[in-house]
Design goal:
7 strands, 17 helices
Length: 397
């Protein structure tokens, strides 16, 4: 209804603009009222009268909207207020949401049943408190229950929501190498929510890989290339809008966390990366609570699922329904230099075998090894790294 009203206002304004132009033309050419044809004069007067009556109608409508927004909750509480109150009732009175409360609260957000001021308060209270496993699981399940996707034959769900700033996105080459060797991978992510980063979507387009915009395109890409990338905007436009609030709020919100856990096509295994180590266990526990049988969470380079050879890497995983932890050792004696510029031509040259990159190729192989173990394609991490090296070296065959 509001959209129709807005369109009608635009049409009326356009008509009024034409009317004013006509009057100005008459004045400029010194045309007296006697020289105006009777039907034109009547039409001008009628249009002026119509517009003025419509103007007052618009003013009345705006007044009604403002009064409604101001007064509607003076005598009755908004249904979403209870969830803000639970989180924000002070040091001793506040608590985390239960799974059921989190599910209901996020269902309301996804259905656009929440006021903007409530949404901002809710997301920032969660950010300050740090979301619990029950909250995350409730949010993710509410999202999954409102998706319009069918389950597909996918080996690995790979989330990519951080973007890269210091190093190339070597994890993309790990995923593409696995796909080249027949593993079916769906990657999903969001672009542009944090300034000065290179995002997966633009890198894939540079390499010549299409971006999918519906499930049919995902199926086609999996059949043809064993790899498909789907933007968050396609998965859930509302979540895409919420994650874009990063530059409005000045902070990341729980959306950055839950989006990584969506697994829209029910892949057999999932990969999630975190930037802050404290989130590693909550991701693992949430995946377990959601019933995911094979999963891996790491503190990835730049927040993406990419093994950093310059540091030890603790993997918090799920293997055939069982929780586990495994630490991979540091591989380099000193910290590798960051890139002065992320020149995608250099990145593509490494992919095509036209150039080498010691740090990058280590990151690709190690990341691929974690993915292979998570997919249950090997029995140990040692075997995983050996196989990953073989796959990388044979990627051009």
């Amino acid at each position: 209804m509001l959209m129709i009203f807005q369109v009608d206002v635009m049409v009326r304004l356009h008509q009024f603009t034409r009317l004013i132009r006509s009057i100005i033309s008459l004045v400029m050419f010194n045309i007296s009222p006697k020289q105006i044809k009777p039907n034109l004069s009547q039409r001008l007067l009628l249009n002026i009268a119509n517009f003025m009556s419509y103007y007052f109608l618009v003013i009345d409508h705006i007044r009604i909207i403002m009064n409604t927004k101001r007064n509607i909750y003076k005598t009755a509480e908004h249904p979403f207020a209870q969830y803000v109150r639970i989180l924000g009732k002070g040091k001793t009175g506040s608590r985390s949401l239960s799974y059921e409360e989190a599910y209901q609260a996020f269902s309301m957000i996804l259905k656009d049943e929440v006021l903007d001021v409530q949404l901002g308060a809710f997301l920032m209270l969660l950010r300050v408190k740090e979301e619990s496993v029950d909250e995350l699981a409730g949010f993710v399940q509410a999202t999954r229950d409102q998706l319009n996707f069918e389950s597909l034959d996918v080996d690995l769900d790979w989330s990519s929501y951080a973007g890269k700033r210091k190093h190339y996105p070597w994890f993309i080459l790990a995923a593409l190498t696995l796909a080249h060797h027949g593993y079916k991978i769906v990657m999903h992510g969001a672009s542009g929510h944090t300034i000065n980063r290179v995002y997966t979507e633009q890198v894939l387009e540079y390499l010549g890989y299409p971006i999918c915009h519906n499930q049919q395109e995902v199926k086609q890409q999996l059949e043809q290339h064993h790899f498909a990338y789907l933007p968050l905007e396609t998965i859930s436009p509302i979540l895409s809008d919420l994650i874009s609030l990063r530059n409005v709020m000045g902070l990341r919100s729980p959306i950055h966390t839950l989006a990584r856990l969506i697994n829209p096509f029910n892949a057999k295994a999932t990969l999630q990366a975190i930037f802050h180590p404290a989130y590693r266990s909550s991701h693992q526990q949430t995946a377990f609570r959601l019933g995911y049988k094979n999963s891996a969470v790491i503190k990835g380079e730049g927040g993406e699922f990419e093994r950093n050879p310059d540091a030890k890497t603790l993997i918090c995983g799920i293997k055939n329904g069982e929780l586990y932890e495994h630490e991979l050792p540091k591989l380099t004696p000193d910290r590798s230099p960051i890139e002065e510029e992320l020149d995608l031509a250099v990145f593509k040259a490494v992919w095509l075998g036209e150039q080498t990159h010691e740090y990058g190729e280590m990151a690709v192989i190690e990341t691929m090894g974690i993915a292979l173990y998570t997919m249950d394609a090997v029995n140990s991490y040692g075997e995983a790294m050996t196989k990953a090296k073989e796959l990388w070296e044979s990627r051009l065959s």
